[in-house]
């Protein structure tokens, strides 16, 4: 479970991607304004793990007749070892009793919660749900709730998961909190994005964002430089090179850039990938408030306009004084 700073919920799809609702975000593109809180029931707990976003992908079909209320938020740094919630890829689990959870209001019009709440709600057939919501998009939406009301998600729970056990007893996400008439009103069940109908698109977007929860057993050729390069304190940019050869055509649209930089204040660092023709791709900006150590992560770059073969460089500059470090290693995975 994840709490997002704009007042929505979400679920960890991969260690670097949060699955949430499209209506919780405004558009696709670079976005560093969202803070994700993970790992706690109490949002005020000092053990909370927080990450800022660096990119948002909003389902382009959401605002069309196709619908599909889902989005992915990429975190600036992955949450290593995060508990992931797999998504349903078939309709086999679109029935029964579901669990919903979030930090949203406990009553209609009420305050947001400090502590995570959960509830159980039963599946409502499309034919019944459409009586309450005639414009419901049955191809991509699923409903859950009691005829008498009383139990429901509410304002602030948007984007959070609806889930149940699969046949192996493992949790699986079947819905994303989308909309409803008020909260827990009789004959107005909650409406959720139907994950099984959207799974293929979610998986494809996740791959493009560098967050495939099922790693490719054959990820492609790897070109790596393991030589250490010292990064001058508040000095000129330094670079480490890898030479790519034997590749046909251009680099892929999801070129993976694995980075291992040891540094005592990673907010000091600006990191770029330099293509053989000199084009720079910004991987990381400096941030004076990011005092954590090290940059150990994988970035995804759309390098499809670049010829694959040639010398690629990882360029790093320390823009603030007092802390130091070095490039330990880095690699390109095609």
TrEMBL record:
Domain P/Homo B, first and last residues per copy: 211-334
Superkingdom: Bacteria
Record-annotated Peptidase S1 domain positions: 1-207
Name of a matching Pfam family: Trypsin
Database matches in PROSITE patterns: P_HOMO_B (PS51829), TRYPSIN_DOM (PS50240), TRYPSIN_HIS (PS00134), TRYPSIN_SER (PS00135)
EC number: 3.4.21.-
UniProt name for this protein: Trypsin-like serine protease
Top-rank EC class of the record's enzyme: hydrolase
UniProt keyword terms in alphabetical order: Disulfide bond, Hydrolase, Protease, Serine protease
A Gene Ontology molecular function term of the record: hydrolase activity
């Amino acid at each position: 479970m994840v709490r997002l700073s704009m007042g929505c919920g979400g679920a960890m799809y991969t260690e670097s991607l949060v699955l949430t609702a499209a209506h919780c975000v405004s558009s696709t593109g670079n976005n560093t304004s969202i803070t994700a809180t993970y790992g706690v029931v109490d949002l005020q707990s000092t053990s909370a793990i927080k990450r800022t976003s660096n990119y948002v992908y909003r389902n382009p079909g959401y605002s069309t007749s196709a619908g599909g209320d889902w989005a992915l938020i990429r975190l600036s740094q992955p949450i290593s070892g995060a508990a992931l919630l797999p998504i349903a890829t078939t309709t086999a689990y679109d029935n029964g009793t579901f669990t919903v959870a979030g930090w949203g209001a406990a009553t209609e019009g009420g305050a947001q919660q400090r502590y995570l709440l959960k509830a159980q709600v039963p599946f409502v057939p499309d034919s019944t749900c459409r009586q309450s919501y005639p414009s419901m998009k049955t191809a991509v939406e699923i409903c859950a709730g009691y005829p008498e009301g009383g139990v429901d998600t509410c304002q602030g729970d948007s984007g959070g998961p609806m889930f149940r056990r699969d046949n192996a007893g493992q949790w699986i996400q079947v819905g994303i909190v989308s909309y409803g008439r008020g909260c827990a009103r009789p004959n107005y069940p909650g409406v959720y994005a139907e994950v099984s109908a959207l799974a293929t698109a979610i998986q494809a977007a996740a791959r493009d964002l560098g967050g495939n929860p099922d790693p490719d057993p054959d990820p492609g050729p790897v070109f790596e430089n393991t030589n250490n390069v010292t990064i001058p304190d508040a000095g000129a940019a330094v670079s480490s090179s890898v030479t790519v050869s034997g590749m046909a055509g251009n680099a892929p649209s999801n070129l993976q850039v694995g980075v291992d930089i040891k540094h005592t204040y990673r907010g000091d660092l600006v990191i770029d990938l330099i293509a053989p023709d000199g084009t720079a791709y910004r991987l990381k900006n400096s941030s004076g408030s990011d005092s954590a150590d090290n940059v150990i992560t994988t970035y995804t770059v759309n390098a499809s306009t670049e010829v694959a073969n040639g010398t690629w460089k990882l360029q790093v500059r320390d823009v603030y004084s007092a802390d130091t470090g070095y490039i330990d290693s880095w690699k390109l995975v095609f």
